[in-house]
Structures are given as C-alpha cells and as structure tokens.
C-alpha cells in the first residue's frame, strides 16, 4: 500500500470519525442536576407563558394593533423559538445519563439558533425605525409604516437571517472533527465547535467576524442613528410630560437592545481566547433563557396598555375597546 493511499484512507477516516458530540451541560455534579432541572423547567414555562401572554394581549386588544406591537408580537414568537431550540434538549439530558447529540442534530440546532437570533437582531432594528418615524415623522407615519411595509420588514429580516445561519452552518460542515468530541456547553454553538475541529478554523472565524460585523454592526448603527434623531426630536418638546411619554416608549426597546448586543458581543468577539470557560455557559444562559424571559417583563413594566390587556387575558375578560 502506497503512502498516498494510506494518507487518503486516514483522511476519509478522519472525516467520518465523529458521528456525535457529548454535551457536558451546565453542571457535571449529578447531585445538582435535579435542582438545575427544576430551575430551568420553571424558567422555560415562565418564558413561554409570558411571551404567549404578550401575543394574546396584542391579538385581543385593539389599542395594541399598531406597528410597534406587531413587531413586538413577532419578537415574542422568536423568544419562544429561541428558548425551545436549546432548553428542552438540555432538560432531557439532565433527566437521562445520555448526554450525546448526533452530528446532524448539532448542526440543525446551530442553524435554528442563529436563524432566530438573526431575525431578532433585524426586528430590533425595525422597531427602532418605527420609533424614529413615529416621533420624528408623525405626519407621514401611517403611510411610511403601513401594514405592507411592516410585512416587508419582517420578511426581509427572515431572509437575511436565513442566509446568515445557512452560511455558518455550511461553513462548519466543511470542517473535520476527528479528535475530542466533548462540548463544554449545553447546546451547539460556533465557538465550541471551532475548538473541537482538527482542521484550520481561521477562515470560519474570519467569516464569523466579517459576516457578524455586517449582520449585527449595520443594524446596531441604524439603531443608534434612529435614536440619535429621536433624542434630538424629544429634547425639542417643551412640555415635561411630552418628553416623559416619548422617552418611555423608547426606554423598553433600548434596554432590550443593550442586553441583546452586550451578551452577543461578549459571546462571539472573543474567539481568539485559548480556552472557553464556564463564563461562556453563563452568557449562553443569558442569551437563550434570561433574555427571552426578560423581554415580556421589560415591555409590559411601564406600559399601562399592555398591562391592562395582559390582565384581561389572565382573567379571561373581553377587550374594553
């Protein structure tokens, strides 16, 4: 057997060596698993219940049939999807001794996670644009933010996020995994898979940085620009009550944007670090559990219309309007 044949045989073996990954999860101590299961099962129920309640409130309350709440309803759907992609599988692993995930299932989880997070990113931009038009261009708001425009913005958000998620999934599928298959996390994500690859990930990391800069940096720049104009317009309002009302409609959105981008930058802009630590698990919990759970609270906390609609949903009462 020639040396070339041996090398080709070894290469083929390497490409098919890893058929599944082992997810270490949040805790490795068996005694803590029941506690973690209860906490995250409760968090999952609260998140899904909270976001579905927001959806129901928007659906039944005519006062909330506005562009801002149309986008918020879509955001609630994304939050339910994001936590469902990661947490149920983690809960299943906590209940069983089997902590493996097939290679194909890992890539599917990666794709849907990045798809939903990507749409989230663009929807937050659409919401900032909506606030800009409502406050800075109130006379043309109804025509510039018509139902057709709203649907186009949502459709474009899904299309761009789909392209982004597919790009990263195809790129990771070209890597070879022939060595360790233990992922120190509770779901499959790019930084953890990069570390396990036995082929060079330099191009993949460059792709993540470049595409991330465009797909996240551009929306962030648009959000900042929108709110710079909003702030200037609000400061020109003479009445204190008027200023307070204008800022209160933007405060919730800005809080969500800060949390979303803060955790995202921490997670993906540290790819050069030699070893991913347990801090990354904490950021993962923030991205997939805490963020979706906080959004309904943030958006309803200082909004009497949403609070009233939610109260009627919980009591099973019809809308007052």
Describe this protein with a few key phrases.
single chain, 321 residues, mainly alpha, 11 helices, 3% strand, globular, Olfactory receptor, GPCR_Rhodpsn, transmembrane helix, cell membrane, olfaction
Helical fraction equals over 70%
What does the radius of gyration come to?
22 Å
This entry's quaternary arrangement is single chain
Q: Which stretches are low in confidence, meaning pLDDT under 50 for 5 or more residues running?
A: 1-16
Characterization of this structure:
- This protein is mainly α and 321 residues long.
- The protein contains eleven helices and three strands; from the N terminus they run αβααβαααβααααα.
- The chain has helices at residues 3-15, 33-60, 67-95, 103-136, 141-144, 147-173, 190-196, 202-235, 240-268, 279-301, 304-315, and strands spanning 20-23, 100-102, 182-183.
- Strands 2-1-3 form a three-stranded mixed β-sheet.
- Helix 2 packs antiparallel against helix 3 (67-95) and helix 4 (103-136) packs antiparallel against helix 9.
- The longest helix is centred in the middle third of the chain and has 34 residues, at 103-136.
- It is globular.
- Mean pLDDT is 84; it is low at 1-16.
